[in-house]
Fold this protein.
Amino acid sequence: MRNRLVLLPGWGLGNAPLEPLAAALKGLDERLHVQIEALPTLGSSEPGDWLDELDATLPTDCWLGGWSLGGMLASELAARRGERCCGLLTLASNSNFVASQGWPQAMPAADFSAFLQGCEVNPVATLKRFSLLCAQGADEARSVSRALAAGAPSISPAELLHGLQVLAALDTRAALQAFAGPQLHLFAGADALVPAEAAGALLELLADVEVGLIEQASHAFVLERPHEVAAAIQAFLHESGDD
């Protein structure tokens, strides 16, 4: 269904951050059906298990997209589905969340390790810190952070840990190169979690895809700047023959 877009959220904060974006998209095109789907709640930290669950539950022949971790999972699922996926869009989503020698444009491994340990010891405090990092760089960072924290669902500590472990394990470069459908990857210029330099690195990795940078925006630009993000998505859908 070329008029259906399924969006997956990021780690720990639930569907609420994507709701303003979904509303903005519907305001731009009443024919577009935007569906926000929660991440799997599995007792597993294996990305393959998460993808199996998503593949079994999400509609086929639609556009797939997501914010941060959701975008990484959408990338893998798009490659798995191939022609059964209309196209892919990712929002503040790196191909590797944790930096490595082959992909340095990401969170330093030591920082992620400390974050993981913090989640094991005090998941509530870690989620609060995460919401602050998501909002860092926003014009109204405190209000964005409060909105993120207020909308976060109750998630068990084990599920939070599994999500972080999946986030660390994913490397979507091969999936992005394998998926032949249209792709849009939007990054935020003041993102504290996904370096803006990842946009240029992705352009070097991939040919014939759309990569955009929203200047002076935070990792939570789906909540901070929903109308600007929606306009970029709508233009992409139109250029890709959705209109």
Observations:
- The chain has a mean pLDDT of 94.
- The beta strands are 4-8, 33-36, 62-67, 85-91, 183-188, 210-214.
- The chain has one domain: 4-239.
- Residues 148 and 212 are 24 Å apart (CA to CA).
